Fold these 2 entries.
Entry 1:
Amino acid sequence: MTPKVRLTAKERGDEVLRAAVRAFAASGYEGTKTDEIARLAGVSQPYVIRLFGTKQQLFLAAIRSVCDRIEEIFREAAAESPELSALGRNYERLLAERELLLVLLHGFSASGDPVIGDCVRERFGSIYTLIRDLTGATPEQAREFLSAGMLMTVMSAMQLLGPDPIPMPWAAEIAKTFDN
Amino acid sequence: MTPKVRLTAKERGDEVLRAAVRAFAASGYEGTKTDEIARLAGVSQPYVIRLFGTKQQLFLAAIRSVCDRIEEIFREAAAESPELSALGRNYERLLAERELLLVLLHGFSASGDPVIGDCVRERFGSIYTLIRDLTGATPEQAREFLSAGMLMTVMSAMQLLGPDPIPMPWAAEIAKTFDN
DNA sequence: CCTTGTTGTAATTGACTGATAACAAGCCTG
DNA sequence: CAGGCTTGTTATCAGTCAATTACAACAAGG
């Protein structure tokens, strides 16, 4: 089957990367098959591998991509109002782009792999540092902010937060406390 | 090879379950091979399957096991002093038994699977409820407590917290804020 | 002692999966 | 328009892995 349209390797790589983010968000590192990513991107599986070398490198690219986007969201939010509480309101944006937090979570889970662990630690550290730099928050405040983000992340993974949540009374009770 | 000692199915099942907790903590649901669990438990791989039916059911058993232990730790802590701040000091115990938080984290990650998701939601909800019941904390306080736990969990997965942490200045800065 | 249920293994299988190789078709450039 | 570079596919492999089957050893009770 000849491809419908020919793109440059960079353009196609971007499309595959977007597909990879969606797929990894849904199934994690080990659980996602390169075949599925290829299907989502509309290309053949071997081409996915050729574009990124290995599945691991593709996952690393996905991690970097979502972390870039997370930092971008925080920067935009801080540009409007550089207070930590204002930044907090922008967790909504992160929850809306559900893949961001989910890929990050799967990054944490896959940190047992040294290569992935190095990448995740570096990116998580730079997010922490960015938050402190943008808002001037103390370590305590920044930690509290990050803590709330992590709870949102795991609740998002359990489908208790974000679009179309599974209704659970206790989860709704927790969700309400985020609205401050 | 004939086994060294014969145990009842229940005893052997417990040993396999302990091995499974260790293995799943290290590599997650998809990343852990039943073969590795068998090796850790000192039995053959088919026997692991026969004892638990499927790898999924073994993972569910591991989730239930660590959640039972987490609730037990909280109950013991509350028996000494039923204040939330006192309970917080017992996160150290959770960090010491590193597998507890790690298996839970991998449970969150694997929540995309409906069966696992159901189990994880139920157990996480009952932990939240237990915390509220034991301490009489408000939803806000309980959420804050859980939030801190989730940050500890992911930092533990990144090997930034717990025994033998990878030294990172920013991570140490965060870790210090937990000591209150 | 024998026979029946239980604990356990060895052998195997069938499906899957990441990666490689070989090839094809399109596009630019001289 | 010829030649080479880029984009993309098909075919295939070598390894892995959960699960099944069949069998073996052992213990306990009659």
Note: DSSP finds ten helices and no strands in chain A.
Entry 2:
Amino acid sequence: MPDTRTEIIRLGDKLIREQGYNGFSFTDISKVLGIRNASIHYYFPTKTDLGIAVVKRQHEELNQIVRNSAKSDPVKQLSRFMDMYNTLHNDGQVCIVGSLATDLNTIEKPVRKELKFLADDILLWMKTILEEGKKQGIFHYKISSRAKALLIISNIMAALQLSRITDPGDFDLIRNSIIKELKTGS
Amino acid sequence: MPDTRTEIIRLGDKLIREQGYNGFSFTDISKVLGIRNASIHYYFPTKTDLGIAVVKRQHEELNQIVRNSAKSDPVKQLSRFMDMYNTLHNDGQVCIVGSLATDLNTIEKPVRKELKFLADDILLWMKTILEEGKKQGIFHYKISSRAKALLIISNIMAALQLSRITDPGDFDLIRNSIIKELKTGS
DNA sequence: ATTTGTCTATCTACTAAAAGGTAGGTATCT
DNA sequence: AGATACCTACCTTTTAGTAGATAGACAAAT
């Protein structure tokens, strides 16, 4: 039997990605789990508490992935990075950083703080991948590694959002273009 | 005296960009304008009606800009394009396409339809700028013009969101990197 | 010139539903 | 007996929206 607390976090995550932070309620979660609204509050007294937990869990999952692929070559690591977003795209979801960023002025400070930790670590990982790839002569770019990391992350983040509107195929187009430009240096 | 209808649209636009579609209410608007909630409904019977109007107005403004800079050289046009986002960044706002994309599953179909019209036209303009710049030998890229346009738009769109979280200065870093890579071909 | 009617933009005063949250009870397991 | 994981039954505030009144502007008819 799956742990209720974990299930709530999982559903909160899903709902934030699909409907936005202000687009879901505790009742949405309780209906799916077949329990009462108040039971959600037993685990997470406030929506802010749930928001924090969702971001933290995401951060833990990222750390796991980073650790597991730390010894892989840069191309494989980049691939692993892209896979995360590919999965989201297949489920019609967007990146949690992007979703919460658009609602940032309506979410509480503790959630923002966790979100910044997460965003900084995503950025750090990409920067590390890029630097190693450049050192090995696999990746080519002239701007700073941090700038290039920002470009790639913003590309893939917005690809999830934009492709929802323009054409689902645009996600792959953007994804493949990023990799191509990085490998050929233009 | 400013037209109330126009003021409502202006405020709706501002609130969507600052708080997200589900993060503002008609009361937020009525309070600022010093009129009653019901008076907003006089102009826009439903929130969906306001949403449509906001996106349409944004589209009209885009068309105006495109027309006004149609005869400028590609560098100037790119500059004009970037200026739109720079202004938003200075006001702490995000792109309307990005804001509505994260809430897409909670907004009504007519709004989505208008949003797609807008996104397609932004994409078309960027593609046109890029092709002209490439023809003149000013811009350099090897992928398709549509793909490059998608990359640039997703970059600048997410730059507004990401820089809210990581560091406001990251917006300029991304903006300048896009232009640099485009001009030097890497 | 004054009355009459209509239109516009606002108001007061509601309503129903949903959101976020609380207090306190109960069943079960250890 | 105490902790855990629920429950029922509330509450308050906000949200989106409606019905119907009113006050002023303006034009046409008397």
Note: Chain A has a mean pLDDT of 97.
